[in-house]
Structure formats: structure tokens, C-alpha cells
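Exercise 7. Given the components listed, write out the predicted structure of the assembled complex. Treat all entries as one system.
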Amino acid sequence: MSRAETVPGAGREALPGAERETLPGAERETLPGAGRETLPGAGRRPQTTAGFLALFRNELHLTFRRLRTKVLLAILAVLPILIGVIVKVETGDAPRGGEGPAFIAQLTQNGLFLVFTALAVALPVFLPMTVGVVAGDSVAGEAATGTLRYLLVAPAGRTRLLAAKFTAGLAFCAAATAAVAVTALATGALLFPVGDVTLISGDTIGLGDALVRAVLVAGVVALSLAGLVAIGLFVSTLTGSGIAAMAATVGLVITVQILDGFPQLDAIRPFLFTHYWLSMSDLLREPMYWDGVLKNLGLQAAYVAVFGSAAWSRFTSRDISA
Amino acid sequence: MTRTPVTGDVTESAGGRGAEPRPAPVPVPAAAPAPSARPDADAVIRTRGLSKRFRGGQLAVDGLDLTVPRGSVFGFLGPNGSGKTTTIRMLMGLIAPTSGVATVLGEPMPQSVASVLPRVGALIEGPALYGFLTGRDNLVRFDAADPTADPRTRRHRVDEALERVGLSAAAGKKARAYSLGMKQRLGLASALLQPRELLVLDEPTNGLDPQGMREIRALVREVAAEGTTVFLSSHLLDEIEQVCTHAAVMSRGRLVVQGTVAELAARAQGRLVVRTPDVARAAEVLAAHRVGGLVHGEDRVDGELAVADEEALPKLCAALVEAGVRVHGFGLERGTLEDAFVALTGEGFDVAG
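Answer.
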């Protein structure tokens, strides 16, 4: 290998006196930046509010532009259509009350009930699964692809990045709930009669009032998932594998719901984050019964606080070696 | 090892630096002076006793004292697994050191990431991109991650960075469709989204074809010429010799040596080469003059000079001629950085590429 040909200027050519280039003092003058005190444009820049918020906006963008997110939302949107069609076909002959998902009996009388039915069906399984996928992958997925290190040297700031991920997770909860509720409303209106709504307490309210309640119920459902977002985020900071974090989070949801089914575990059941989920149906009484709903929201807030802190403490102290 | 032949017969005056006796591995005096000799403000990166022990007990970096002068193109050299990337991750605040301190741009890391890193562009262990985003959207995201980046100039800066690395035409393509070279260039573009005081490039030419390597090196020189300090890690000696002014050598987690590239190369012991058809006789004469490590080749003998002063070489030459050796060529062959590395670490080096 002829090094001299490939290394011009390295002081190894067969020139007399070539070794003079290697004198230590002479080398300094060849520094490209020598003599330049400052670099135009480089240096400290102030942090701006718009700059700070840019990551939050970008995170939302990233979440909802992903094909995976769109597929999850599409699956959630198909669910109410399926329920609506099945109920329509099955009740063609003889209505059977008392069985099947919540509010199924009322559904045939009023299409609006499809919103409540679909939310009640989606809340225990489908919604938490999709939220588990999104929240579980949030940090671990970035670690797996290596983009996490580039975000952190940008520097995104670990707390800020975690906050952006949590915000995007909540936004996904809202979008997922909306996907179920909106298609349910459309399907219900298409397949069944729509009019005044008879509540489960027996009272009848107008369609406008009923729509407000539907929005309220959907809002409570979305917030019911906040604790799960925090749990998913925490799990996500524990591992460098997106798949593992997703699986762990979804597995946890299923395990907790099974535990919630054991009456023997009464001592811990009220502290399981799924325990008060279905209390949202209390909002379909007249007057609205807020007790369970408030307990649910309080429990979610506690989960957010506990697992949010755990995620923060883990993520801000962790070595990023992926 | 490619010790010979390097440049054919290199005729040099006696007392070439390459013939200096080799002391134990310590910093080259002129390049790593005592801290008082050069003000700290001049050092873009400075570490003292920086160490990292991973949870498995493995000591990845061991007592590193590194000084990177402002304005240099600093080559950070070492075989794979010698602790280069771990060091870079500590400098970038990604992992916390077990002990020791590191300052970057005069501020301690990892405590000062928020104020230091906006002024640093980095490419660490190859590019990492969002495959489902376009090249441009990848840059937009990394730029949005920097809270000091102005959203109003984002589009302009992203376009400029894309143009600089020659990716303007492919900016609208999804990153998963990029070749490795394009990904590498996009990674470089994200390091160049702002004017930087320091550019940290970890193996920037890894996996590139020769043309891609040349392009990246040209870009590095260009950035350096603007006054940005470049910290470039590599396991390719050629690369360091071609683009760097300074270099440090890591081996098994320890810093073996640091200094200017020319000084390091000079530390490789030069060899005396005599070209002659009378190989046997020449060897006798050389041995009589205390030239050790003789290697007989076809029409050449080479060996290590015990003493190399102004007098030794002419005397030796005269002795050869006196003994009737037909001297066709006589001189010192300079060492390469690779020779220096082998001499310092006793380790081989991956010179492929």
C-alpha cells in the first residue's frame, strides 16, 4: 500500500526538508479555525416559547401521521359498525333483552345508544389495547430505532420529551374514543330510529341533551385511559424494545382486568385502574350520578402522578446506550 | 502489516524525528501540555479522569484525560470496542460517567446539556431515522427537538442543510427508501441544521463507498474551514491522517496518546533502509554498527537505528561504501500513524477501507 500517494501533506513525501512540516510549532498554524475568534451565527441562542412548544406539536404530528396509528383508529372505527349491523340483523326476528353488551336492549329503539354500547364494549379491551400500543412504544420505540439519542442531543431535554410523549398519548386517547363515538353515532343514526332518549333511570330527555351526555361520556372514557398512558410511558422507559413495552403494557391491562373479576381480592380491587371504568354509565341517569365517575378520575390522576413520576425518575437518570 | 515498502527510498537528513527513542506511552509533550500552558478556554472538550463502568462491571473507559483544542480537526482513534463511542456518549450527556469530569465548550457535562448541546452537532454510531417520514420531515423533527431553534426559520434551515449534503432532490422521499450513504448524509444534515461550534462525528464514513467517503471528508474539511471544531472518531487510520490535525488513540478504554497527527506519525520509529545487491555484506556492516532488528529483503536490508544523531547516518553510509557495498539507496523510512499505533498498543489494526 502506497501511503504517500494517498496522504498528501502528511509530511511523508520524498522531499528534502519535508520533515519540517512535522515540527510541533508549525502545526498550529495549519489549524483551520486558528485566528478566528468567533464563528458567525454559532454561539448561544435563547430558548423561545415557540421553540419549546415545537416538540409537542411535532410529537402530535408524528403520532397521527404514522400508518400504525391510522390502522388502530380504523379498527376502532369499524367496531361500532360491526355492533350496529349485528344487532340490526339479529333483532330482526325477536328482541332478547337482558343479555349481551350494555344498553343493547335500548339500542333498537334509539340509534344514539350505539354510542354508549360501542364505548362500553371498547373500553375494557379494544381501547386499552390500542392505547397500550401507542404509549408502550412511545419511548422504547425511539430507543429501538436509535432516534432517541438524536432527540436527546438536539437537545430535546428528557423531561420535555417525556411531557411531549405523554401529551401525544392523551391526544391519542381522545382520538381513539372519538373514533368509536363518532362512527357509532353515524352508524346508529343510519340503522336505527333516533329521537328522544329514555335514560336507564327511566326519565326521558331530548335529543340535544342526549348528545351532550354522549360527549360527556366519551370525555370520561378518554380520561379513564390517562392512567394507562402513564403506565405505558413508564414501561416504555424500562426497555429498549418497542414490542416488549407494548406487549407488557397490553398484558398488564388484561391481567388487571382479570384480577378485578375476583371478589376475593376486594381489598385491592378499588385501586386497580380499571375498576371504575364502567361507572361512566352512571352519567346516563337523571340526575347524573357522579360518585363513581369522580372516583375513577381521581384514581386516574393518582396513577398519572405515580407512574408519571416513576417514568420521569427512570428516564432522567438512565444511560441511553441504544 | 504494511511496514514496507512505504515510499520507496526516502532520503532524509540524519536526526529525523522518526528515529527518536520511544519512551513509555505518555502524551506527546508539545501537544498535551500541562493545563497551565494553554488556557482552558481554548479547549473545546476537556476530560479529567473520565471513567465509565457498566453495570456488568466492565470498565469501558478508564481515567480518560482528553483535551481537544479549539479549531482542530481531532481524530479519535481506536479499534472497535476500545471505548470511543462510550466516551462520545458521555460527552453528549447520554450516559453519566462513573467518575471523573468532562467539560464541553467550557461547561460541565452532563449537567449543562441544555446550554451546550444546541451549539453542538452530532452524529453518533451511525444515522437513526424515522423510516415513515420523509428526509425533510426527519430534519424538521430533529430541529423541533431543539428548544432554541427558531420555528420561523426552520424550513429555510432544513432546506439549506439538505442542499449542503446533496440531498435536496431526495428530500421528499421516505427515509426508509434511502441508501445507507443517503441516511448517513441526512444524519450529517441534522448535525448541520445550525451553525455549530463543535461537530462530533462518530464513524461518519462507516459503510460508505469510496466516493461517499470522499464526499463526507470534503464536507468535514469545509465545516472545519469555517471555524467549527470537529471531533471525529474512526477506526480508519487513513481517514484520520487525511482529515485531522490532531489525534488521540484509545485502546481498551484507556487513552494511549494524544497530539498532532504529524507528531504521532513521527513517533513511529523510522527504519533505516539500505538498497543494495550486496545484502549479506551490508547486513554485516550494519550489525557491526549496532543497527538492530535487521531484515533481509531482496536487494534491501532494513533495521532499527540505535542512535540517530547528525553524525550516525553519514558515518554508516561511509562505512558501507568503504566495505565495498554497492549502495543504491540509503535512507530512513518514516513511520505511519499505523506504525505508531502498533508501537503504542502492541495491537493490530483494522486497516480495511
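Discussion: The longest strand of chain A covers residues 197-198. Residues 1-37 of chain A have pLDDT under 50 and may be disordered.
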